[in-house]
Amino acid sequence: MPGVATLLVTLADAAYIDIFSPGHTVAKRVTILGSTGSIGTSTLEVLRSLAPDYQVAGLGAKRRWQELAAQCQEFHPPAVAVADPANAIQIAPFLDSRSELFAGPAGLVELARRSDTDYVVAAIVGAAGLESTVAAVQAGKKVGLANKEALVVAGSIIVPLAARTGAVLLPIDSEHSAVFQSMSAGRRSEVRKIYLTASGGPFRAWSAEQMAGATLQDALRHPTWNMGPKITIDSATMMNKALEIIEARWLFDLPPDSIEVVIHPESIIHSMVEFVDGSVIAQLGSPDMKTPIQYALTCPDRADGCARKLDFSTIRRLNFESPDFDRFPALELGYEVARIGGTAGAVLNAANEEAVEAFRQERIPFGRVVELTREVLDRHNVQAAPDLDALLAADAWARREVAECLKQ
Ligand code: NAD
Ligand code: MG
Q: Is a pLDDT exceeding 80 seen at residue 8?
């Protein structure tokens, strides 16, 4: 089991030594894993506005091959991967004659470690992105990390691996980008705590009874962010914030007790860092992922941003509330798993992914999603220092447990 200090080597030291040193060079050739998704397409928008300094070195996705084909025709990537081999034949005619095409999950891994790539944007949703994210870290790339589930499952593997290979993990998740940016206002040893802000999702003001029977349409109606369906449902249960507590624990090497969740319905303050002297430094911006994506690509430099700018003449007030742990029991799960470590993250994530999928298929009501995840986690015998195989086994076990519960 890696020591908690390892993260300092990968991210915080990178932030304070490598990235902010004059010798640091920014990445130019970018591969996007999950290019057809919400983060993937926003990343391409950012790359359009950063062209010609940044180029697309590779694109990979599973769903929506027609969109991937259109992306290939616009960006001419030297390498493309499709997770579903059946789509390889469909997409081949849209590639440049010299482009390489990889098929199947192993193709995403190939794409992630190619030598003509400086920077990998990990934007596949769920544990499906774990293997390719690990491959990018193994190959010592700069990794813009949107795929938070990879860290929730395997932060204990990824963080020390990055320290060994020289890979740098750069947060894309807006809260973690905000913390990352705010941390540069002081030294790492001067950080007292961080505040992760949360919009509260579509059910912030709903009673537990109302929430229990919420429909899929209700859950997909996020008040401030436009995102892929899985993270949108995670935001409705607030499991997204639970995953982000664990993500922050790994990225910033913080004990869970120094990570506090604050409800901030306007989603303008993206998170905050409190230093030992009581100063709180925040990062603000419109709720648009293009801003944190761009910073992950260009940092420590900044370039003209293509997201909408804040207009303070239209912002009347910023509101804050304490989270309600009774109505949103997922939050407690986040703290619990961050404290326990071992295989708990893999089980939490896999059970949640399966429960969310069951809700999307209308096999369980909204109120069962977190309950089911909790039940599976409670039945799990946590293994303290798992290797990657043990984490994958825990993931598979949790998925089988959910399937068993669904049969009953
Ligand atoms: P999405 O569903 O919109 O897109 C997912 C992408 O992953 C698609 O390109 C899809 O083809 C690909 N994909 C799915 N399963 C795959 C598989 N088995 N193999 C290969 N590719 C696969 O999801 P999203 O909202 O863009 O989220 C992506 C990641 O970014 C998630 O981990 C999410 O938590 C994180 N994130 C998203 C946002 C956001 O605003 N959307 C914000 C913060 C963090
Ligand atoms: Mg987030």
A: no
CA 275 – ligand 1 centroid, Å:
33
pLDDT in the model for residue 363: 97
Distance 146 CA to ligand 1 centre (A): 8
351: phi then psi, degrees, rounded to nearest 5: -65, -40
Pocket probe for ligand 1: among 124, 289, 352, the residue whose CB has the most ligand atoms within 8 Å is 124
Q: What angle do CA 1, 127, 296 make, to 5 degrees?
A: 85
Residue 19 above 70 pLDDT? Answer: no
339: CA distance to ligand 2 center in Å? 20
Length of the chain in residues, anyone?
Answer: 408
Q: Among 178, 213, 240, identify where a domain stops.
A: 178
Whichever domain contains 119, its CATH number is: 3.40.50.720
Q: What total of structural domains would you count in the chain?
A: 2
DSSP secondary structure code for residue 54 in this structure: S
pLDDT in tens, 136-172: 999 999 999 999 999 999 999 999 999 999 999 999 9
